[in-house]
Amino acid sequence: MILVPCPHCGPRNASEFRYLGEERARPDPVAATPPEWRQYLYRRTNPAGWTTETWHHSSGCRAFLTVERHTVTNEIRSCTVAGAHT
Amino acid sequence: MKARFPQRFSAWGLVRHGLTGDDWPKVWRSPELRRSYDVVIIGAGVHGLATAYYLAARHGITNVAVVDRGYVGGGGSGRNTAILRSNYLTPEGVAFYDRSLQLYRNLSSELNFNVMFSRRGHLTLAHNDSSLRTMRWRAEVNKVAGIDSEVIGPDEIKRLVPMMDTSDRTRYPILGALYHPPGGIIRHDAVVWGYARAADSFGVHIHQNTEVTGIDVDVSGGTTGRVRGVQTARGPISAPVVVNCTAGWASLISAMAGVGLPIITHPLQAAVTEPVKMFLDPVVVSGTLHVYVSQTDRGELVFGASVDPFASYSMRSSLEFLEELAGHVLQLMPSLATMRVLRQWAGLCDMTPDYSPIIGVTPVEGFLVDVGWGTYGFKAGPAAGEAVASLIGTGRVPELVAGFDLARFDDGRLVGEKGAAAVGH
Ligand SMILES: Cc1cc2nc3c(=O)[nH]c(=O)nc-3n(C[C@H](O)[C@H](O)[C@H](O)COP(=O)(O)OP(=O)(O)OC[C@H]3O[C@@H](n4cnc5c(N)ncnc54)[C@H](O)[C@@H]3O)c2cc1C
Ligand SMILES: [Zn+2]
After folding, report:
1. Cβ(B406)–Cβ(B361) below 8 Å
2. How far out from the chain centre does Cα A1 lie?
3. pLDDT tens digits along B57-86
4. Domain range enclosing A52
5. Which of B54, B80, B231 gets mutated to test ligand 1 (max ligand atoms within 8 A of its CB)?
6. Which CATH topology does B264-351 take?
7. Looking at the predicted complex, does its ipTM rise above 0.90?
């Protein structure tokens, strides 16, 4: 499979992580209509190429990570702690 | 309409060709690409080809092109483990997959092509109380729909599969199983080739190595537009109806028409062993152990598992998969320890949130989808092809697939099949 370069733990096997999917903007839960909310829940870009996604190092440091990965080659070009830059 | 083959396959034909050494006719032609068709189907897998066949055979619509960027059956249709069954969880699912199984039973004679359907029985093992409860639920839903499906105990399982370790000394003792006698396996390539040959005999064009690179949508009239045709690596083709039958690649094709889908593409891996004498009759699935196994008519054991746990368009298989698989298989049947694996491979699966397909119209007029087939769509090819052909031929969505529309994800009408489709493809 693939190695995820966790900033805390170093390169670890993907099986230590939980994949939480592509990053997407969460609509305002109060203002969003049910169809808008469902689109947020279900619709995905599902691109073939570079994408930004969230992984959870569930069997490691348990940090949430922001990962830039190429979905055709599975190459990972960046892996940072989620929310660290915002 | 009946297919007009240049030469029908028969026992007599086999003898004649054996004696004369004459060449067999090409199974399908490679015609010139026209600039316009009545229907363009993207994807030459079982779904695209079945749709083309039923369009021609049932509706007389033959000015049809099936275009694929690779070769016929090069996607999931040539990579799956060919398990057929109809013991699903929802009434919609059960009725739909049962129709497909009915069509499969007659397919060899309908297509004049031996698709080698082998009725074996299908066992879904339960290793804990909650899965046994799901099995009971499925058995009851199945019986109401008239489908042969029942929960059996460890003794009966041992009688059907003597190799299975049904003792209570294992890590995950077997408490029971959902037994579905009509389930079985089929020769997947033969199904695809049979549909391709039959569709071709009606005049349908099959264009391999013809990648679709864009979809033309006319937005001048309505808000979301109307489809005009496709752009391909071999030039544009105009068509009033375009069908997306690209499974793992479905999101990419739909995006070309501006249609978003609730699909995530995951790889699914499988492996096959060297052939040995027949010892395993039923198909055996264990959701808890994430593994299933069947023995082909040629004697190979075919193994599968659940999807790789992250989205990807990569079709590389991994050693990690094989190791985990082997460990789980040996928990079920320890005596397989000396078997050798011949090959392993991966295919792409278009997973939906509810483990049910998406069939029918989209916001773009004339642009239809038959996608979301995940890890379970090979068995669905005939019924889905029949339904999509009927939608194109009559303009009405057939009752059988009405619940599988794309709009259900916006309206919250999901058809939850996870309990019956997550591992037991
Ligand atoms: C390992 C594995 C095991 C499985 N086991 C089972 C099973 O036991 N039972 C079961 O029912 N199902 C099973 N499945 C699922 C099943 O294989 C699929 O659901 C089914 O084959 C989908 O068929 P399809 O015709 O829709 O798509 P595919 O056969 O995947 O065909 C899609 C085609 O679209 C083409 N395409 C993609 N992009 C473009 C483009 N831009 N332009 C032109 N063409 C394009 C591809 O080349 C491909 O040929 C399994 C899948 C895998 C991977
Ligand atoms: Zn870590």
Report:
1. yes
2. 17
3. 999 999 999 999 999 999 999 999 999 999
4. 3-81
5. B80
6. D-Amino Acid Oxidase; Chain A, domain 2 (3.30.9)
7. yes
